[in-house]
Design a protein that fits this description.
It is a single chain. With about 300 residues, the protein is an alpha/beta fold. It has a domain of about 200 residues: Spore Coat Polysaccharide Biosynthesis Protein SpsA, Chain A (Alpha-Beta Complex). The protein is about 45% helix and about 20% strand. The chain is built from eleven helices and twelve strands. The strands form two sheets. Strands 1, 2, 3, 4, 5, 6, 7, 9, 11 and 12 form a ten-stranded mixed sheet that branches. Strands 8-10 form a two-stranded antiparallel sheet. It is globular and about 55 Å long. It starts with 6 loop residues before the first strand and ends with a helix.
Length: about 300
């Protein structure tokens, strides 16, 4: 058997063929010197994504699911067939700059206590995407992405959660980094010698908060979670979720509740209270989406 690569790139894709092609080209034409492999899991796409990979990228290992297995489970599928010393979990709507894998490997080798590393994420227009945050608190959820948040856009709870008091231009230890692009040390997950690993992604999270949970478990096990400004990865956020907004919103809020109940709940009363808050928040966002959609249709007809 060939020597295992330094990096395994794991990509879970659903109906974003054009983005996936751009992501794969950025990796394969990226001038990286480290040996790497790519594993793509297609979550039952209907837009020809699997055929695209088969026809244009024969060197990529492809797993095709007959149903949408969700983000955590599909990434675990990719992880289990991968062999790299590090794994880069990256979304198909990311574009990696030249030499990105070389930079990530060098950074990880220089920081052996880092279990997970998150690079800087940029929006397509070049603006900063808040990809590292503090662990979520109910007050931040109450004011972020809600009507209250529109009334009080600069609430301190949201600013603290998004770490907005920092330019994101230096290396820092953080609570968690976005699963849109995270570099993970294999032995932190699988263990080595007498040190147990934290395990794979929790498949109880269908979509959303699985990255927070993984980072939390890294902290519990004594590993660091680090943010680095280099490389800067472009991420066109929400390309898959935008195709099924209501389903994505409700899945995200179920995951929010699971995260709180798993790690932050002290008693049944607190779980009930946060459950009510999360449910109300999710319903409010769905209603707001429907109202905006109806209003947009009405304006077009006028």
């Amino acid at each position: 058997m060939n020597e295992p690569p330094e990096v395994s790139v794991l990509i879970v894709s659903w109906n974003v063929a054009a983005d996936l092609e751009q992501c794969l080209r950025s990796l394969l034409d990226g001038g990286n010197r480290v040996a790497f492999e790519i594993v793509v899991v297609d979550n039952a796409s209907s837009d020809g994504s699997a055929e695209l990979v088969r026809n244009k990228f024969p060197s990529v290992r492809l797993i095709v699911n007959e149903e949408n297995a969700g983000f955590a489970r599909a990434n675990n599928q990719a992880w289990q067939v991968s062999r790299g010393r590090y794994c880069l979990l990256t979304n198909p709507d990311t574009v990696l700059p030249r030499g990105a894998l070389d930079k990530l490997v060098a950074f990880a080798d220089a920081h052996p206590q880092a279990g997970i590393i998150g690079p800087r994420l940029l929006n397509p227009d070049g603006s900063l995407q808040q990809s590292c945050r503090t662990f979520p608190r109910p007050l931040a959820a109450l004011f972020r992405g809600t009507l209250l948040g529109r009334l009080f856009p600069n609430h301190p709870a949201v600013q603290e959660y998004l770490m907005e008091n920092w330019e994101h231009d230096d290396v820092r230890a953080v609570d968690w980094v976005s699963g849109a692009c995270m570099f993970v040390r294999r032995r932190a997950v699988e263990g080595q010698g007498d040190r147990a690993g934290v395990g794979l992604l929790d498949e109880g999270f269908w979509w959303g908060s699985e990255d927070v949970d993984w980072c939390y478990r890294m902290h519990q096990a004594g590993w660091q979670v680090l943010y680095t400004p280099e490389p800067a990865v472009v991420h066109a956020i929400g390309r898959s979720a935008d195709q099924a907004v209501v389903r994505a919103v409700m899945a995200h809020h179920r995951s929010m509740y699971r995260l709180y109940a798993k790690h932050f709940s002290r008693n049944v009363l607190s779980r009930w209270a946060i459950g009510a808050l999360v449910y109300t928040r999710g319903v409010g966002i769905v209603l707001s989406h429907w109202l905006r959609t109806v209003w947009a249709l009405a304006r077009r007809r006028l």
